[in-house]
Amino acid sequence: MLRIGIVDDHKLFRKSLALLITTFDGVSVVIEAKNGKEFIDTLEETPIDLVLLDIQMPEMDGYETCKVLHELYPNIKILIVSQLTTRESIHKIMDLGAHGYFTKNSDPDQLEFAIKSLNDKGFYFGMELGEVLREAILWEKKTTKKPLDSSVSLSKRELEIIVMASKELSSAEIADKLCINIRTVETHRKRIMEKTKAKNFIGVVLFALKHQYIALDDL
Fold first, then answer.
1. Residue 11, C-beta contacts closer than 8 angstroms, at least 6 positions apart
2. Which among 200, 199, 73 is positioned nearest to 125, based on CA atoms?
3. Angle 201-210/87-95 helices, nearest 10 degrees?
């Protein structure tokens, strides 16, 4: 059973989201919190696998919560569920270690797929995320004054794995397509994250896109 937490300051939305999630197979909502502080305090006694996290909240917002989770509970997957879709906010929350982004105006039927994809494959790279990633990457290239880091070398095989993973293929599916062992795929994924200093595999994809190792059209 996948244990879910929901963190959102709007009670009606939080309760409605919990009711929706209870209709999904193999999923249970075990924490509901109105802000990051209440959520982090609850985590000490109630462990979870995945959290649906809003960004704009009083007392402790999604940015700060995401940072704390990455430091103290790195195994918890983070799916941002927010109506905030500015380039700056998307880039910032992904840089802090979120594993996926789901906009509040998305189709509710897509949420089950997003949750299970994030849990099974480590991140959710949906259509709406692809669009905001494009915006965020273009924005960063225009605003940053730092030169691109060319010291990271990614092999052809590593680039193949990045592209396949971004297309929602699991490690087992990647191993099958490349005719290699699944443990070899996992070793590659770990090494790629170490090379790029990414917090998760969405960070790897962002790195590869920003540094032009791959293009959005490849995904």
1. 34
2. 200
3. 130
Backbone angles phi, psi at 52, to 5 degrees: -95, 115
CA distance 104 to 111: 10
- Find out whether 100 and 129 touch, Cβ atoms under 8 Å: yes
Torsion of CA 43, 46, 51, 54, to 10 degrees: -50
CA distance 11 to 33: 9
Cβ atoms of residues 26 and 53 within 8 Å? no
- Whether the CB-CB separation of 163 and 173 falls below 8 Å is answered with no
The separation between CA 178 and the C-alpha centre of its own chain, rounded to angstroms, equals 25
Task: Render the burial of 187-203: b for 16+ CB within 10 Å, e for the rest.
Answer: ebbeebbebbebbbbbb
The pTM of the full predicted model, rounded to 2 decimals, is 0.76
Using CA atoms of 21, 24, 29, 33 in order, give the dihedral in degrees to the nearest 10: -20
d(CA 91, CA 88): 5
pLDDT tens, residue order, the chain (219 aa): 999 999 999 999 999 999 999 999 999 999 999 999 999 999 989 999 999 999 999 989 999 999 999 899 989 999 999 887 776 777 788 778 888 888 888 888 889 988 988 887 777 766 555 565 655 555 555 554 444 455 788 899 999 998 888 777 888 899 999 999 999 999 999 899 899 888 778 788 878 877 778 876 666
* Angle at CA of residue 185, ends 27 and 26, nearest 5°: 10
In a 3-state reduction of DSSP, which class is residue 27?
strand
